[in-house]
Design goal:
Blueprint lengths: L10 H10 L5 E6 L20 H11 L3 E4 H22 L5 E2 L4 H10 L14 H16 L7 E7 L4 H4 L6 E2 L2 E2 L3 E4 H10 L21 H4 L6 H15 L10 E3 L2 E11 L2 E8 L1 H13 L6 E4 L23 H18 L9 H10 L7 H7 L5
């Protein structure tokens, strides 16, 4: 792996380092699911090695006041988007519902498919945004922190996420949901600069109460994971049954980039799919023609999803590994974490339920939840 020539330290990293020295600020950090299965590669560990505990300890050594899991934010995104989808099914549309967590897809839609924002693209914030919003509304109040003094940093696999946190619709009570964003590479380079022996670190644990998450949140990091997590929660909300079977997706006759599946929800046969940008453009054309066969479409801009984001460690051909192999190993690692979780349905996250009881009237999709966890694109 070409980790010898380090990029210049990113502006966001320098700014956060200064804030960590400011005793008047409380600087917290959240880590996206894809980071924990790729960060170790920057320290010569095998591709897909799960380094969650070492990552947490490294972040504490860097100086963050608390280390939280973006997976908690993913669980928030799941329950809100599931409530949104079930409402749509019971109303009979409009279809399809597109996910809104991938900034690459949302930016494409802003440029080319403005009409999709009138009821087709979900209004739910991304996991980063949902986490930041709840940190402002719930965590700050619980810890008696002035929201002005709370700084939210996110560690992500995606370069475009550096832009997302400054978009005007990602705000809560006048504050941006996320203040600064680092990539996996940014974090790895800072760990190296600090002289931290990453591979010798003991495993740490995420802080409470925003550190608890489910298997459904973990698989957000790979293609199809958003869709699977939403289906699990939709089935639970619809029937009260815990469904965690792996969904079987088959290639669509429309395009090899589209993987589809049919399920039953609210007594109806529902067709869903996940795809990359090639499939997204094709499906978008069908939507505009009124011929889209799908009820829900998950779009991820990067092939394989966030695990292959541009902020992740890259592997050169001379290493004897293909992008597909890297993708498969990282995806497998996320699946292993999902299968090992005691709770795999987002709607059953106990810490999340406490947040809903405290500030969202105890109801997924409530008016108060919409005010904080949903975007207003216009």
């Amino acid at each position: 792996m070409d980790n010898v020539a380090k990029p210049l330290k990113k502006l966001e990293v320098s700014q956060v380092e200064e804030l960590l020295k400011d005793s008047s600020k409380v600087v917290i950090v959240q880590t996206a699911p894809a980071v924990r299965v790729s960060l170790g590669e920057m320290f010569s560990l095998p591709i897909g090695t799960k380094v969650t505990g070492k990552m947490i300890t490294a972040l504490r050594k860097i100086g963050f006041s608390a280390v939280f899991d973006t997976d908690f934010g993913a669980d928030l995104t799941v329950v809100e988007e599931s409530a949104e989808f079930l409402k749509r099914i019971k109303k009979g549309g409009p279809y399809p519902q597109f996910n809104s967590c991938c900034i690459g897809w949302v930016q494409l839609a802003i440029r080319a498919y403005q009409n999709f924002f009138d009821g087709l693209i979900s209004t739910v914030k991304s996991p980063l945004g949902c986490f930041g919003a709840v940190a402002r509304k719930y965590y700050a109040a619980k810890k008696f922190i002035n929201p002005e003094d709370l700084v939210v940093v996110s560690i992500v696999p995606c370069i475009l996420k550096k832009n997302e946190n400054q978009l005007p619709y990602n705000t809560t009570d006048g504050f941006f949901d996320v203040d600064y964003t680092w990539t996996t590479k940014d974090l790895a380079n800072l760990i190296m600069e600090r002289g931290i022996d990453f591979n010798s670190l003991e495993d740490g644990e995420f802080d409470d109460p925003l550190g608890e998450s489910t298997g459904g949140a973990t698989i957000f990091g790979r293609s199809g994971g958003v869709l699977e997590a939403i289906i699990r929660t939709c089935i639970y909300l619809d029937t009260g049954k815990v469904f965690t079977d792996d969904l079987v997706f088959t290639p669509s006759p429309l395009s090899a980039d589209i993987k589809e599946c049919t399920i039953t929800l609210a007594g109806q046969e529902i067709k869903v799919c996940h795809c990359g940008m090639v499939g997204a453009k094709l499906i978008s054309s069908l939507v505009q023609q009124g011929n889209c066969p799908y009820h829900f479409v998950e779009v991820m801009a990067c092939p394989g999803g966030c695990i292959m984001g541009a902020g992740q460690p890259m592997h050169l051909p001379k290493e004897g590994v293909t992008p597909q192999q890297v993708r498969d190993m990282r995806s497998s690692a996320l699946n292993d974490i999902d299968h090992s979780q005691e709770i795999r349905v987002s709607a059953l996250n106990k810490s999340l339920l406490k947040v809903y009881d405290a500030i969202f009237d105890g109801e997924f999709g409530s008016k108060k939840a919409e005010e904080v966890l949903h975007r207003r694109y216009k």
